[in-house]
Structures are given as structure tokens and as C-alpha cells.
Design brief:
There is one protein chain. By secondary structure, the protein is an alpha/beta fold. It folds into 2 domains: 170 residues, Peroxisomal Thiolase, Chain A, domain 1; 142 residues, Thiolase/Chalcone synthase (Peroxisomal Thiolase, Chain A, domain 1, 3-Layer(aba) Sandwich), CATH 3.40.47. 32% of the residues lie in helices and 26% in strands. The chain has 10 helices and 13 strands. A 5-stranded mixed β-sheet has the order 1-7-6-4-5, with helices on both faces. A 4-stranded mixed β-sheet has the order 8-13-12-11, sandwiched between helices. A two-stranded antiparallel ribbon has the order 2-3. The longest helix has 22 residues. It is globular and about 60 Å long.
Length: 325
Amino acid sequence: MTFRSVVKGCGAYLPEQVVTNHDLAAIMDTSHEWIVERTGIHQRHVVEDGDYTSDLATRAARQALLRSKIPVESLDLIVLATATPDDTFPATAVTIQQKLGAHAAFAFDVHAVCSGFVYALSVVDNFIRSGQVKTALVIGAETMTRLLDPNDRSTAVLFGDGAGALVLQAEEVSSKDKDTQRGVLSTHLYSDGRFRDALYVDGGPSRKTMGYLRMQGKEVMKHAVEKIGDSVKKALEFHKLTPQDIDWFVPHQANIRIINAVAKYFSLPTERVVVTVDQHANTSAASIPLALAAAETDGRIKAGQLVVLEAMGAGFTWGSAVIRW
Ligand code: UT7
């Protein structure tokens, strides 16, 4: 018996506090024009004092459960993708488990920074495919603004906070319908630690410091288009699909220049690319599920359509996922 992980519902949460480029230009040496031209970002949501990654994640998860009409008691697994956990341990996923009251599940975090959601989706999908898990929650949630150095304008303008979640459930694959049946069709993951120094936080529990996010922006940008393009190309080849078969391209939202360059490489029209970077900025592991929730809520992504996800970030880590929604 083979199983496929079918998306049953998605949810999102963005903090109410919105910080515009103009707000940032009032407190640091930057401008709305520079930020829009170099990144496409107009604003970002910033977590309120007293709220943590688990709070954002729990709100997104509750919405996903409500929309999927799946009771919290049915959850077997919760996987959280985050680089900004509440505490060093336990995993923030178990804090979410407690807040949700999902006592029948097991829960853990996946740490792959901006690629975190694609990594977490892959882990969940493999548990479901193997038959070990029937119903799972996969969440991407971040409070990235807590890692920003206010004196480093090259990174302080780029990131925002938020959370997105998907409920996935196992459905048996029948060989006759396997080409049209809904679910995660594949995930492809990659990493290359030789690029560790291009994007990192210069602190952590073992170093006994909190640290700030540091990035060689040009170096990351140079590799992003090539690595993302390559992972999407391999995924399409794996399924014998062409870019024309993609209904929705939902990329990690780091920079509109990267998104446009990849879309151009595959000749994807902008109408089939989901963009939220203008409103959310870069929310790391939360960016893809936030974009999925936005496009499903407004009626763009519909059941049965072919959705391709991709992400690239610190490590470097990168990867893609193909989903029949
Ligand atoms: O999600 C993880 C993956 N992350 C990414 O994909 C990010 C990839 N990188 C990028 O998005 C871009 O490299 C940035 C948006 C970070 C920067 O764009 P860039 O075109 O690579 O600009 P740059 O770093 O070469 O900087 C150009 C100029 C510099 O001034 P000089 O040396 O030319 O005089 C910077 O000092 O822009 C200056 N600059 C700024 N000016 C106004 C840097 N940050 C700012 C700022 N406001 N916030």
C-alpha cells in the first residue's frame, strides 16, 4: 500500500504591527526607494513584545486545523521549521503541541533557515509515505526581526515575522489515478556547507552569545538563482513535466529580483507566480506557507492544480517540492 500526503487545509498568522520602509528610513540611513528597487519590499510585519515564535505558529496552526475540519486530537505529528525557536530547548514544536492540546502527536523542530519549510514538508511527507503517520501539521514560523542588528542597514530592512501552516493527511494511492491524484508528488533537498559564512548568526548557546544575522548579500544572490533554478529543473525532469505544466510557482520570498529571474528562466508568466515579499518581506521558513495560505484564501490556488515550491537560504540549503494541491 502506498500513501500520498494530501493538503487538507492551510493557515497563516501575521503580527498586527506593520513597519513600512518609510518607518525604517526615519530611524536608519536607508530609503523606501532603495529598499523597493533592490528587494521589492514595501513593508514587513513585526512581532509584538511578549509574543514568541510558538504564539505565531499556534495561531496559524489553529486556522489550518479549522479550515481542514480536522480535530486537533487526530494529529499524529507536528513538525515546525524555524531558525528562531522560543528557547534553546525543548523544541518549539512541543510548546505548540501543548498550546494546541495535540496530545496524541509527537513533535520536533527542523532547522534549515529559509529552506526550512521545504525540508519540514519533506520530513512529514516521508513519514506519511512510509505509513507511520496519518495526519500531520507542518508549520513554518519565525521571529526573524529579533535576530537583526539595528546598526546593519544591509540586513535590517530585509526581514519580517509571521507563521504559516499546512495540515497533511495520508490518502492511499491507486495506480490507476496516480497521475491526477492530489498530494505531495516529490521533494528534492540539497545543502553545501562550504557556503556557511555567506549567511549566518554570529552567536548561539554553545558560543554563549545571542548574536545577530550576518549576510554577504551579493554572494547569496549570485548562488540563489542558479541553485533554485537547478532544483526546480531537476524536480520537473523527475516528473517529466515542463514549466508550462506549473499552475502556481510559490517561491521563497527573499527578493523580487531573485523571484523574477527564476520565473524568467522558466518563462513563467508573472500571473502564475505568487508574490508576497512586497507585504511580508523575508520571513525565512514562514514565507512559503504564508504565500500558499494567501493564494489559497483569495481563490488563486485550487484543488487539483500543480504547485511548485522552492527555497534557498543559509548553509547554503536549498530545495523544491511539487504538490498536486
Ligand atoms: O532568504 C535567504 C536568502 N537571502 C537572500 O536571498 C538575499 C540575497 N541578497 C539580496 O537580496 C541583495 O544582495 C541585497 C538586497 C541584500 C542587497 O542588494 P545588492 O544589489 O546586492 O546591494 P549591495 O549589497 O551591493 O549594496 C549596494 C549599495 C552599497 O553602497 P555602495 O558600497 O555601493 O556605496 C550599500 O552600502 O547599497 C548600500 N546599501 C544600502 N543603501 C540604502 C546597503 N543596504 C542599504 C540600505 N539602504 N538598506
